[in-house]
Amino acid sequence: MTATILKLLPDDEVRILQTYVSGLTDPSLEPIYNSIGVPTELDPTRTQVAVAQILLSAVQDDLPNWGFTNEDGDVEVGRLPHRRLPDARLNFNPHHVCTINWADSGPGFSWPEAYYITYLPGFNCHVVTASRDGVDAHGCLDHAIGFIDGQLSALDAAKQIIVNFWTEQRTQFDQERWAYVFFEGLIDKATAQAWADQAWPEEIWDDDDEVNDDDE
User: How far apart, in Å, are the Cα atoms of 133 and each of 39, 62, 66, 126, 139?
Assistant: First the structure.
């Protein structure tokens, strides 16, 4: 990190970011994760969640959220404010790539996921985060899904990371293709669909591969 950035971030946030981009683990960070409210029962790592909380703190009001009015007339929401460490004086500048809806499971029940890309100065890399309005899918609201060389454009970086993420959902969890785009950002609906085509390629069957009952 540059000297300027170091002065604006608490040492432990620098350690979290360094741990993430190095691909290593640091058990000594566990008390820090506890202090900023990182969940423990997760599909991603706690480091991935902590990174997302750091990077998205300035835009958290724009992230997917659900709410309802209870019997007392009070509004309850599913997303609580991100917690960062004291003396965190730097807000990063994440850019909204797009927000998709995985499915509509009933009237008023959707499964949105918003993708943001953030450049990390000093580390010279882009990080993409995924954000949801509930913890059902991954045990957390937000987590970092990948990082890549900062020499790439934000658009190219986002494409590689998001397509890889969708492909992993398909191959590892048999995840079906998402339903539609809720909101456009750096990319429009047509581009999002083109990226999805790469993650969920159509199977093309050759006539010669089909079983012919007469040959059995």
Answer: 15, 11, 6, 23, 11
pLDDT of residue 206: 46
Residues with Cβ within 8 Å of residue 73, at least 6 apart in sequence: none
Contact (Cβ atoms closer than 8 angstroms) between residue 46 and residue 33: yes
- Could you tell me which residues come within 8 angstroms of residue 112 by beta carbon, excluding any fewer than 6 positions away? 64, 99, 100, 101, 102, 132, 133, 182
Q: How far apart are CA 103 and CA 70, in angstroms?
A: 26
Give the span between the Cα atoms of 140 and 168, in whole angstroms: 18
Q: What is the pLDDT at residue 96?
A: 98
Once rounded to an integer, what is the mean pLDDT over residues 188-213? 75
Q: How far apart are CA 114 and CA 73, in angstroms?
A: 29
Q: What is the mean pLDDT of residues 141-155?
A: 97
